[in-house]
Amino acid sequence: MVEEESLRVVRCGGSELNFRRAVFSADSKYVFCVSGDFIKVYSTATEECVHILQGHRNLVTGIQLNPRNHLQLYSCSFDGTVKLWDYIDGILIKTFIVGCKLHALFALACEDSVFVIINKEKPDVFQLVSVKLPKSSSQEIEAKELSFVLDYINQSPKCIAFGNEGEYVAAVRDFYLSVYFFKKKTTSRFTLSSSRNKKHAKNNFTCVACHPKEDCIATGHRDGKIRLWRNFDDEKKYTYTCLHWHHDLVMDLAFSVTGSSLLSGGRESVLVEWREAAEKNKEFLPRLGATIEHISVSPAGDLFCTSHSDNKLIIIHRNLEASAVIQGLVKDRNIFTGLMIDPRTKALVLNGKPGHLQFYSLQSDKQLYNLDIIQQEYINDYGLIQIELTKAAFGCYGNWLATVEQRQEKETELELQMKLWTYNKKTQGFVLNTKVNMPHEDHITALCFCNAEKSENPTLVTTSKDGHFKVWILTDDSDIYKKAVGWTCDFVGSYHKYQATNCCFSEDGSLLAVSFEEIVTIWDSETWELKCTFCQRAGKIRHLCFGRLTCSKYLLGATENGILCCWNLLSCALFVFRPSEPRPLYIQKNISREEVQWGVFVPRVVPESFTSEAYQWLNRSQFYFLTKSQSLLTFSTQSPEEKLTPTSKQLLAEETLPTTPFYFILGKHRQQQQDDKLNEALEDELVQLPLTENIPAISELLHTPAHVLPSASFLCSMFVNSLLLSKETKSAEEIPDDVSMEEEKESVDSDEENNFTEQVQDTNNTDLGKDIIHQLSKSEEKELRKFRKVDYSWITAL
């Protein structure tokens, strides 16, 4: 039984992994990224999430390794705190209370403080300040000592960079570059031509990076150019050179650890490496799938990490080869399809990359795969009207998938296409079966399958603003071999030229409910006759849903006025109520800081055991809901850290062992112990039988000529006896007299047969003991002796 107090709202995934730059551990085994209120720790080798660091009460805005201890991690948040973590064990060490919103975090090895970006009075004015971290044994410490560094800066951490081992800090905003020198305590400012000059209209700074060893600053710009600044300690003698490959704005820059190369990325989805900062020495890693928003370099210099606009991290080797992909929930501009559950994989399905459906695992919080629906190359152009995937529905226990895509430049130029996909067991994916151009004359508002268990022929219903609903059935669409099937329209219905807005089948598939604006109609699915209408004017119907199991006689509808309608189909009675008025089963306030847009129930593999009436609605299924920023939340009794699989935590523990000479000895010893335990477990589970080629009775049986073999009754008895297992080899003296007498009765009068018997018996007594493994009790031995007395003479009749 689960306690009521333990049920709470937890973030289970979907947060942005690309909100800030990822950070590598010192040994490059792990990569850290912010994820909403959490910090996630991933293995760079296996892509597994090994830890979730939770403790902040608001959005995490920055993470940095502790320069003085590479096994610790700093983080800052909008909750006004800087936290220090032990990321190996997932433990919060200290919390420094600053008291104001923190937008970014930077840490230097030579400082006993950290640098943060804070908001000062006006909403668009940001400052870079130094926060001294007091030393104390307590876990929560106030850090109120702030030192001003730079003013009028951008809140994005991509616009701040520390250079030449912390000698100076560079900041960019709009058309300005500011450089503050810590030793001199002076600031140099540089300005580019503003947008008033059309020739230099896109000179805006977008990002900045500093050379780790030299006095060199690289800046990215809106026009796609990269400028390398030198001699910037003098405002009159400064110089800069330009590198240009990107056709659109430069999203991020990063120098390698040694400074020998510069990395850049943008909307082209191409990582560019500028070696020796020269225009001619360029290397490319193309087709990364989405806009590069951040670039990170590991402290060891062997790995890069790119963060992408489709909520993805790509781990890249130094030779520009991608080695791992960590894919989160893809952030689409609009979720037209709503939230669906794949009946086969139990994955969450919704709009993903443009023109794709994404299948997202709710258990492991990562994407399983993408299904390309539109099957056209996506062109990243803001002025271009794209084809949109607007509707999708699963049917027939996941065997069929229906999708609708549309494109409309003008009111009279609607391009509409419906596709039906069948699940292929060989490829373990969906394959296009039928494509219907312009299935309706106007926008499709809903589609649903008949998922009744007794349904013989798959049926699909679509509704449209053209005032019609259409019934599509699967028919023989084959050639002479009768092996192909396709979908065709079987019936078209309407009601007084009203727009059809929603549709839904009853659980047994006998009835179809179709809403026409404020009117609900009920149709017989066998004859497609109109049975009844519900004309109560409660508002335009937005959603329809039949009840299930004992509530299958009820039909629920939600209107645009925030009213729920419930019809009893047996008595045709109507119940109209607002969600806030009747007594609800469960109420949870303040579940999210932002608007909840979608929700879905997911059947549980193992039912819960809530006994309280308020929680019993969660026993058979779990409720997930999606917020405006596409954070995925649910009601659960486990925190995100507790939901991690044991294999992920074991992986983390094994990788933390140092590779010392003692480790190799200890590692081999532990591995040997694990192998021994595994072998013992297998021996306990399996009864090992001796190999047939080592049993003398079988060897004699197979190699002796047929015309000199003894009778079949004797051979059968001998063969069965050879398969019996005992503790140890029995000598002739240990064999009881009654057994010897029984064997003599079964012998044949012929002298040749007697001699053969003695030879075989002696061989069995000497060799069979080598193959004996299983230990028998005394009772089992008695049962086996009785078994040996059984008469097998019936085999002679075969």
TrEMBL record:
GO biological process, one term: positive regulation of transcription by RNA polymerase I
WD repeat coordinates: 53-95
UniProt feature, compositional bias: Polar residues: 756-767
Main localization of the protein described in the UniProt heading: nucleus
GO molecular function: RNA binding
Alphabetical keyword list: Nucleus, Repeat, Ribosome biogenesis, rRNA processing, Transcription, WD repeat
Localization, UniProt: Nucleus, Nucleolus
InterPro entries noted in UniProt: Beta-prop_WDR75_2nd (IPR057644), WD40/YVTN_repeat-like_dom_sf (IPR015943), WD40_repeat_dom_sf (IPR036322), WD40_rpt (IPR001680), WDR75 (IPR053826)
GO CC terms of this entry: small-subunit processome
Keyword hit for Nucleus: yes
Gene3D superfamilies registered for this protein in UniProt: YVTN repeat-like/Quinoprotein amine dehydrogenase (2.130.10.10)
Annotated protein name in UniProt: WD repeat domain 75
Organism from which the protein derives: Balaenoptera musculus (Blue whale)
Domain WD repeat-containing protein 75 second beta-propeller as annotated: residue spans: 339-574
Region (Disordered) location: 731-768
Acidic residues compositional bias, start-end: 734-755
Residue ranges of coiled coil: none
